[in-house]
Amino acid sequence: MTNTLISDRDRFAAQHPEQRIALNGRDWGFLDIGTGPALILMPGTLGRCDIFWQQISALSDRLRIVSMSYPGTGDVADWANDIVAMMDHLDLEKTSILGSSLGGYLAQYVTGQAPDRFERLIAANTLHSVAGMDQRLPYALDLDTTPIDDLRAGFGKGLNQWRADYPDQSDLVDLLLMEVGGRIPEMELRSRLKVLKAGPELPDPRLPLARIFTIQADDDPLIPPEMRAAVRGRLHPSAAYRFLSGGHFPYIARPAEYTALLEQVMGLAPTTTHEWGKEAERTL
């Protein structure tokens, strides 16, 4: 049976191959697509830059979207410096940034370090602190010496449990299993895990509250309710977007609603029938 998500992603990847760039000595992947106000997209642990293909396809006629794949070395501070270096390379004086999960932590860090370079922060399905991260699997493992097959198998176990709980998202699980099964190379996968395990505490938010937004999902298996509340409590977003369903990957599971959300945040004319409303907490 055809997996339409994988087929669509592969078609997009063939049309838009990942480019490579050295930033401060680290090898990053990226896509730079579209015209208009700039938006940087930072994926989570299980995504490359094309994981946002549905949003890029829907919005690149109105936004310049720079989506990035992580290198195999560096830490949160290094990666934040690299994002700013990427902006300089692309002649982007200012940009909005959306980070999901790991990317959301990094986005909070870089906007706290260089607030004058960012129009908006969109912190999605992410965490507020790495305190205690080194006590949780897989972060509790020795991430340099644990066999890569064991790390990949651990992710696979969690993803297949998600499939059992939400069988209608089986296509999404298969796509993510491809990512963790080898589409993300070993050193890049290890690096993503190590960055959070050894991550610094976040600097205070320094953007005006009107330019800060959060995205969360009620059924996110990785970000529990108390952590979602802590993210909102830390950031005090002007709008807190809440998916009633969508798990940890609502940009894949509910792409039309995610696109409508980004249209609203970025001040674009709506192209879908999905209405997020104008309340402080917006739910679909």
From TrEMBL:
<feature type="domain" description="AB hydrolase-1">
    <location>
        <begin position="37"/>
        <end position="253"/>
    </location>
</feature>
<dbReference type="InterPro" id="IPR026151">
    <property type="entry name" value="Maspardin"/>
</dbReference>
<dbReference type="InterPro" id="IPR029058">
    <property type="entry name" value="AB_hydrolase_fold"/>
</dbReference>
<dbReference type="InterPro" id="IPR000073">
    <property type="entry name" value="AB_hydrolase_1"/>
</dbReference>
<protein>
    <recommendedName>
        <fullName>Maspardin</fullName>
    </recommendedName>
</protein>
<keyword id="KW-0963">Cytoplasm</keyword>
<dbReference type="Pfam" id="PF00561">
    <property type="entry name" value="Abhydrolase_1"/>
</dbReference>
<dbReference type="GO" id="GO:0005737">
    <property type="term" value="C:cytoplasm"/>
</dbReference>
